Every structure is written in structure tokens, then in C-alpha cells.
Amino acid sequence: MGLIRAVPKTPIRADDYNRNLDNTVAVDEPRTIKVRHTFDPEQPGAPFTLGPNAAGQLVAGLNADLVDGRDAEAIIAEAVSRARSRTITFAELAQMPTPVYVAHRGEPLVAPENTFAAFRAAQARGFVAIETDCRPSLEGVPVVVHDPELDLYYDVEGRVSQLPLYEIMRARSLAEGFEGEHPPLVEDILRNPGRNVWFLEAKLAQDPFIYRLATMIHDHGRLDQVGVMVLVDWGVSKFAQLRNDFPGLWIIAVAFDTSHDLGAFAAAGVNVMAVSVNALTSEYVQQAHALGMRVAAWTVDARADRDRAIGYGVDEIYTDNYPWVAGLMEPAPLPFSDTFERSVVGTAWTTRQDQAQWKALPTGAVSRPGASGVNHLVCVGAKIQDNPRHTRIKVTYTPRQLNADNTRWMALQVCAQTDFITHTLSPVEPNHAGSYNCILRQNGRMQIDRNTPGQNFQTLAVLDDTPAMALGTPIPLQIDITPTGITFTRLDTNDAVTANDTTYRGGFCALVVTSTGGEVSDFSMEDITP
Length: 530
Hints:
The protein has 530 residues and is α/β, with parallel strands linked by helices. The chain has twelve helices and 26 strands. The protein has helices spanning 14-20, 72-83, 90-93, 116-125, 165-169, 186-191, 207-219, 236-245, 262-267, 282-290, 303-312, 322-325, and strands at 4-6, 34-36, 48-51, 66-67, 70-71, 100-104, 129-136, 142-144, 197-202, 226-231, 251-255, 272-276, 294-298, 316-319, 369-371, 374-379, 391-399, 409-416, 435-441, 446-451, 458-463, 475-481, 486-490, 495-499, 508-514, 518-527. The strands form five sheets. It has an eight-stranded parallel β-barrel with strand order 6-7-9-10-11-12-13-14. Strands 15-16-25-18-19-20-21 form a seven-stranded antiparallel β-sheet, with no helix packed on it. A five-stranded antiparallel β-sheet has the order 24-23-22-17-26, with no helix packed on it. The longest helix has 13 residues, at 207-219.
């Protein structure tokens, strides 16, 4: 059968796409049609092609071109129905056109991450692969959850590894509208995986837990559909032993950088190297491919990162927000109030103007990761006035996660000279361009630091005798940026600290929270110059 030419009847909308999307599905019948959308989102009338060797996602709104007496939409609907009734395997995944998009923790912008609801949303969208995380309970039972603390997402307090399974299973989601969700078990996935493949990341890289996962996958007969992900730090020799003990297991090695020996991991029998998109290079991908390994990029939520990953030639892209990355939707509104006008597209708070919307955990905490345990939210549109002006910024912070060693904190990073917000302070990244941090620590300490590119941060002012954070108690904060200094005030106690420094003015404002430890609300910024 020859190729069918078709054009969208109307510009394709996100709603149409979400309703009809089905990621690339390999099918047995040579006459079954798959779809590749090759149109430019800026030119929605551009043609795309249908054919037995095409690839990509289903697209709504086709003209009724006839093939063997049937229109294209009918053929596609039939193909999708048939494809969704059969299971995808890793062998089939390896033959799909690249990149294959992977649902990172399910659909975390549709439902709370790593819940049945998030997985169902990803399956309904048509993802062929879902990535998720697991940790052992007190008894060693694999529980689907990313962070060590269960109460970050659910209404039962404690660390997953220290809680018996019966306590974990009585937990219910903190997210509004999803109160019935409880932590899934890996056992649940293995019993009913659906049609897609799964990547289970072992957040505890220890032999007993990893081998328990591999054994469960084997015993359930899911070796061709469920794989194991482990950090490269586990060790090449252990990857090799795992391959020897489970010859059919799909093994993914996770890396934050590219400093490891690719040849050694290939010899150990690793199928996929999953590497941070910020560390990848085309040379790395080419070398991995030459060694017979696939490469996955994580976590890609910016369109610029998508373009880089595709340019490198990666096989898989892990994403939280496929419709955004694919250019088919605009950012969602902020889930808290603000009182300033934005000049950016939509209502995005981002670290790049092309970045995806930020997502909120069930606690309401900011959850765009900057570094391990550190998250930040940047308002590109919240441009601070240059000197000589007086800018006043207000925000309320409510602690939702406190720890015993008083290490958590929140901050507002102000006067950032670019929209690149630093999360490395020793030394500050050279491309950051400079800013200040106004920090409130869990123990009540207030401080103002200056972030100078290429240097360690410098503390300019400190106030130690303010009340410690109290769980669930809102703390209204205020920052005054004047021509002569910066004053950081707790409005609940009227404690204040001032730094008489004028190095940086203007720029952008960011909210920074560690360990997703709280929620922000009532942000405002105004010029109060007399």
C-alpha cells in the first residue's frame, strides 16, 4: 500500500491531541497504518504522511482520503483498537522509531506522580513506556514512591523504609481530588502492567532490594515487559552479575554525568544508559550506539532540551509533560495568587522562557528540581525595577516538611541578572550572572547572601534570634530592594535583617525551597518608590 497524503482539517488543538494521542505502536499486519506528525505547529496546515513505515503519534482531524474504500480515520481507528489489545515488549520497543517518549512517574501534571491515577492517565494517553520509582518497606516489600518520606505525598508520616507495609497501605494521597489514591506496590504493576513496558527505578541501590525486584519480574513472567533501573554507582561488576543471574532482564543504568566507562557497562550487559539531558553529548550517544546500547535522556520538560536530545540521537526521552514538550499546549495557570502583570506567554513561571510549566506536589510544594533536594520556581515576568527604585516583594511560606536536624530552608533569590537561577553556591555557576538569596532556615535563622559568578556565596547579613518554623504555620515574608540596600522581614514577628549592598539590581525573582518542604502563596511585587 502506498503512502496516503493528508492535511489536518483545522489547526490541531491540545484537546484533540490529548484525546487521540497514541505513541508509536508496532503492529504485525503490514497494511496497518501508523502516523507521523511532521507538521510545523506554527503552520498547522502543513501536510503529514500516513504509511506502514511511518512513525510517531496519532493526529486528530484528518481529511477523509479513501484507501481501499475506507477513509484514513477509519483505518487509524481500527489500527489503534487492534494495537491496544496487545502487549508491547522490549524487543518491539527496540524496533520503534526514535525517540520514544517515556512517561516519567506517569502523568504527574494530570494526577499525583507515581499513583495509579498518574499511570492510568499515561496509559490513556497512549505512552508505550512508563518510568516509576520504588523503595522497600520495613519488610523489604517494593513500594512505588520516589522520596524517602511517605508524608511528602500521603497522610501517613515517616520514612518508607521504616514503616511496616500495613501502615503504608492505609496511607491516602494529600492531593485534592485524589484522596482515594494509596501508594501502589510493584506487585500491583506486575500483576496488571497493561500494554506498555515499565522501567522500575530502584531508589535503594542495594543488592537485596534490586535482586528482589528482578526475582519478582522473573516470577511474574514479565521479563519482556518490565525492566530495572539502577544508578551506575552500584558498580559495573554488580550489573554484570545481575545480567548473568537474569539473562532476559531489561537493565537500565542511570547516570547524572558521562564520566563512566561505557565499554564496561556494555560488556556488563546493560541495555540502556539513562543520562541527565544536561550531561549528554552527541559523542556519548554515538559511542553507546556503537557498543549496542540505547540512550535515554531525563528529565526533558523544556522544548530546548527536547531539541538537544533529539539532535544527539537519543532513543528515549523521559518527560513529565509530553503535550508541552511536543509544542501542543501552553502552560497552566499558577496555583496561587499574585498581583503583578506578566509579559511572558501564558502564565508560566520558568527558569527558561521555553520551559514547561512547574508542577506542584500534593503538599503544594514547588517541585522543579535544581539540584538534589533543592527546587526552584522562577517568575520570568516578575522583572525587578532597576535603581533608583524601591521594589517590595511579598510571599507567604507554609512549612509542610520539617526534619530533625533543622537543615531545611526556603529562600527568595532576587536581582538575578539572568533567568538562569543558581542552585550551586560553592562556587556559583559562572553563567549565573549574579543575585542575592534571602533565606529563612528551619531553625529561624534569617540571612542575606550574595551570589557572585565563579565564587563561593558570601553571607552579607544574619539574624539568629527569630522563632523556628512550625509545621503548617504560615510565615508572611517581605523583601525591600532599595537603592542603598536589601531588607528581609518576617511580617509575623517583625524581625528584619538588612544588607547594605548595591552590587546587583533589577533582574528576576525566584522562589527556592529545599526538599520540597513547603508551599508558597500570596506572591506579590510592587514598585513603592515615592
